[in-house]
Model the fold of this input.
Amino acid sequence: MQSFPLLTAAALATVAVGQVNPFVFYPQDPERQTVTCTSFVGRPWTNQAAEALMEIDQRHFRGVADANGPIRLFGVYHWAADEKLSTVETYSLVIRDGALNGGGPDMSPSAELIRIGNLTTPPSPSTARGTWILSDGFGITGGLFLNSSPQHYYVGVDLPANPAWPFTDGHALFRADLINAGSGALVGENHRAGAPNPTWSGRHVLPPFSTPWTYILGPLVTSPNLHVGGIDPTSTRLGGPGANLSMNGLFPDISGSPRRDGFLVRVSDNIAPFGFVAVGAAFGFQVPHYFINLLPGTLIGFSHIGDGTGGVPTLLSFGVLTNGALDIPLAAPGSIATALQGTDVVLQGIVWDTNINLSEWTNAQAVHL
Done:
């Protein structure tokens, strides 16, 4: 895979950021943290045409964009790296269904849940390299509805072929490489051995293939987000302090040979940036079920950690968002018993907007210990 190092950045947003939450699976929060973990900027299939696809799989996540049943997606967020800002780049947005056999995206035209083409990066007088932060809305009242609960679906940016990339021009995406990507990256993901690839290259003329990195890429949703961050104090792959909010949280290493990672939960919400937060946990995903409202007001969304009998899951912590985010430490490195290897712990939160007395479930995320 050809890639090119990151140098500079510029910014643009095409929808009001305070009205939506980008659900991004990346080692750092690109909206609020300094991104030091980017391995390279790259494309899904070098300089040939392909879709860069983020996978949302129910084995790992449930309730992303879930508002009492239907999934509602409002657009796509990504960081576009442009080798020459003065040249306008063309791209498309796509949401597509997964293949029935579970082997990645279904690349047939019938599997496209939405496609919006002929979008362009903004014009610029600069001939330098740079980055556009793009929040492209679908322009659909109420969002794109996925009325069923797909086992996996894919959110992506379709890049046309560009023979000029990366030497003179072209559009790429910020990416964080997995340890096993073979790219020589010093920063990036920090999962345990054997973790699956999280993204895909959606080729239109050949079968798709999985790619060993994460992108700053994801759907725009109105529900609050929850991400689990893995903490490995022996690693420098984050490029700075903090927890890895993607693969290290999803696949931590507690083997004791030698790693014994800890983890925290990060809850974020642009819509209620000073909301009150409660986070709970269960062993494994539970049947979606409303249970007692832990916070006052009307409760929106489904619990994926309730047991379906009217009881409440284990309540772990309360807190208050500051400028839309809150980190809640849950397990220090070395504190998780190695006997828990092979266990799935599922975490989910509620954000209570005290201004309108409305509380809403975050997505639920598994931690595959």
User: Anything to note?
Assistant: The first strand starts at residue 3 and ends at 4. DSSP finds one helix and 26 strands in the chain. Helices lie at 247-250.
